[in-house]
Design brief:
The complex is a heterodimer of chains A (about 130) and B (about 210). Chain A has about 130 residues and is an alpha+beta fold. Chain A has four helices and five strands; from the N terminus they run H-E-H-H-E-E-E-E-H. The chains are: A alpha+beta (about 130), B alpha+beta (about 210).
Chain lengths: ~130, ~210
């Protein structure tokens, strides 16, 4: 109610506001990747798939097998206050664009894995909330 | 008046080119540059060489009536009208599905060490990917669901309800693309080793539901 009342009071000077959320992919691995005790030379591709879910992309590099996971989430809000001219503008963008690559050797054992720009748990929770 | 004179100004090819590159894919007129400027010329380092003496700066396409009668024109018109209504609609719901989702019930019928790849093919159909390796093979199925909810409310452009406060508006957009993925692992003898699917979790609450695993 307070928000509604505030918006009504601010209406004469609010030029426009927008809220945008675009989420692409399965965030399960983002939340789980840090918890998994993957070990090079031991963990198999089946164990990885069961822990993190199926990958988004599967590639072969010779005899090597590569799993790629990807998740993108973008939240944007903007507010423009105007009275004849724009007197105030605010743009807020929170974005996650993460990838996880996991490679397996010809024996189907984990070779290496790398993850890009995974926020920590607290940041992820705040982002998703 | 200026707009009416534009096609006659000798720059119709330029405007047709701009039209094709900007709104060509959704324009009811379709791609008009070749029809407006002609195709009987070659561009090289030496400049533009006209292959015939036909005039190629035209105020309108030379086969305009024939083009308007083609079925493709109606499709372009439909896409243009659709884009227009999307543009003015205050509430937009879009659902785009691609691929076929693998039912969780069917996955539960598959038994590790028992089910063969041939039986999986019979039950699930051909996969999007089937990789054969020395240690076995991997099958992958995928379907995507895209949902869009857009909401807009505000004053139309150039309408001053409150003097000084132009274009009052609130816009909300939520777009979600959910991949339904299933991966199956087979040993050297084409027996199922195990599988993983995120279908149940994608279908229900993303944070709580469990994956289907065997």
């Amino acid at each position: 109610m307070r928000l509604l009342a505030g918006l009504m009071l601010a209406a004469p000077v609010v030029g426009g506001c927008s809220l945008t959320t675009v989420r692409d992919g399965d965030p399960h691995y983002v939340l789980e990747a840090h918890k998994q005790p993957f070990k090079a030379g031991e963990t198999t591709s089946l164990e990885v798939a069961q822990a993190l879910g199926p990958p988004d992309l599967i590639e072969t590099q010779g005899e090597r097998l590569v799993f790629e996971y990807r998740f993108r989430d973008r939240r944007q809000s903007s507010l423009i206050l105007s009275y004849y001219l724009n007197v105030f503008q605010r743009l807020s963008v929170h974005s996650i664009d993460s990838r996880l690559l996991i490679a397996f050797d010809e024996q189907d054992r984990l070779l290496y894995w790398g993850v890009s720009e995974l926020p920590t748990g607290g940041q992820i929770v705040r982002h998703f909330n | 008046m200026a707009l009416l004179l534009l096609p006659l100004s000798g720059c119709s090819a330029l405007f047709a080119f701009i039209h094709d590159k900007t709104i060509g894919p959704i324009s009811p007129a379709g791609n008009v540059h070749s029809a407006t400027a002609g195709e009987d010329f070659r561009v090289s380092d030496e400049g533009v060489r006209v292959a015939s003496s036909e005039w190629w700066f035209r105020p309108y396409p030379r086969d305009m009536l024939a083009r308007m009668g083609r079925p493709q024109s109606f499709w372009f018109a439909f896409k243009g009208i659709e884009a227009f209504f999307y543009g003015i609609s205050p509430v937009v719901l879009r659902e785009v599905d691609s691929g076929r989702e693998v039912p969780a019930e069917t996955l539960r019928q598959l038994e590790p060490r028992q089910t063969t790849s041939a039986q999986v093919l019979e039950k699930l159909g051909p996969p999007q990917l089937w990789l054969r390796r020395r240690e076995g093979s991997v099958m992958a199925y995928r379907a995507d669901k895209r949902r869009v909810l857009a909401f807009w409310i505000g004053t139309p452009p150039f309408v001053d309800i409150i003097p000084g406060a132009n274009n009052l508006s609130f816009r909300y957009l939520y777009e979600r693309r959910r991949p339904f993925k299933t991966i199956l692992f087979f040993d050297r003898d084409e027996r199922l080793l195990g599988l993983a699917s995120n279908a149940a979790r994608m279908e229900q609450d993303e944070e709580r539901a469990e994956d289907v695993q065997q």
